[in-house]
Structure formats: C-alpha cells, structure tokens
Amino acid sequence: MAAGPERYGCVHYRRKCKIQAPCCGEVFDCRHCHNEAKDSLEISIHGRHVVPRHEIKLVICSLCNKEQDVQQDCSNCGACLGKYFCAKCNLFDDDVSKNQFHCDGCGICRTGGVENFYHCDKCGCCYTYLLKDSHRCVDRAMHQNCPVCFEYLFESTKAVSVLHCGHTIHLQCLYEMRAHQQFSCPVCLRSSCDMSDKWQKLDQEPPRCQQSVRRR
C-alpha cells in the first residue's frame, strides 16, 4: 500500500510500522506479508516458514525508520504506530472499525467486537453469541484445516462457518459446495444445512411413471 500523509501499511493492516521477522531476520509490513512471501509454493519446502507472532521483538517506524522494541508509540518521533495495539500478539492496526479484541482463550486477537463473541473452551475458539446455545461442540473444532481448501482455520483471515454437526469450514468453500449441489459435511457426511425445504419439494413432486421392461 502506498504511503500517504495519513496512510501507511499494507493490504492487510493500516499502520505506521513494519516488523522484523524473528525467524529469518527480514523486514516486512506485517506477518501476513511475510507468510505470503515465505510460505508459498514458490519456496522450497525446506525453506517455508511462518512468523511466530508472539516472538516478534523488533518493529521499524514507517515515518522515521527507527528500529525499536515492540511498543505503541515510536521511541524516536513519538508517532502512534497503531491505534489498536496488542502487546500480547504484537499487533498494530489503525483501522479500529474492525473492533479488534484480544481473546486469552484463543491466545490471539479477533475482530468483530468482544461484546459479540464468547470463547467456547471445548471447540477452542471464539464463536458469535448467536451460536452459544445452539451449536454442537466438537473438540478443537477450529484447530483443523478447512476440509475443502485445507487452510488452517484457527488463524485464517477468511470467514468461517460452523455447520450443524459442529465441524467448521470456510464460508466461501461452503458456498462453492452448495453451488455444486453438495449439501453434506465433508468430514462426517451429515447435512451441512437445514434440508427441510428441499425434502418438502421432493415430496411434492409427482411420482414418476414406471416404465415397463420387456423381457427378451
């Protein structure tokens, strides 16, 4: 993302600092930028790696280029490196409209407002309060790969859906399944949604005429 008078950062975060990756020592706008560059198919499988977010120790101010310990305000020019700052996750973000919050149960920051989510200890993740009394718990349900695209769901930045059976899947992957008339959970094969309307339509269809079979 090009830097303007009040706009710094990358496609993932708007903020005024970069990070030095503790794993390789290189400087990136954020951990997602690092992971896209260092954990891609273009990298040798032995060289692929991701940033351990909790181990980030150094940041670089985007305004004065001062390298410093992780902190919200630059120790040199005093600029606020991120309006939202989490010292546990080493996360900076000027876009507070995301309503970020840190969940101690998850151990990472989430978006959407702490008042709208609760942490399910059995599933091991934050779920919307709308699911609190209705979802089926599955041990560490979010600590799995998406059964369609195989991306790790717990740290995915994409929207995730909790199926009736309790298993989890990327929302976009679920839409693609339904577009191809696939309505069962890829993990347990139970219905992934309420099929009542479809069964009712099938019941209302006129019976097909049985064709006589000639014997030879």
TrEMBL record:
Listed GO biological process terms: protein ubiquitination; ubiquitin-dependent protein catabolic process
Domain CTCHY-type, first and last residues per copy: 81-145
Entry GO CC: nucleus
Ranges of residues in domain RING-type: 146-188
Transmembrane segments: none
Domain CHY-type: 3-79
GO molecular function, one term: zinc ion binding
Keywords: Metal-binding, Zinc, Zinc-finger
UniProt name for this protein: Uncharacterized protein
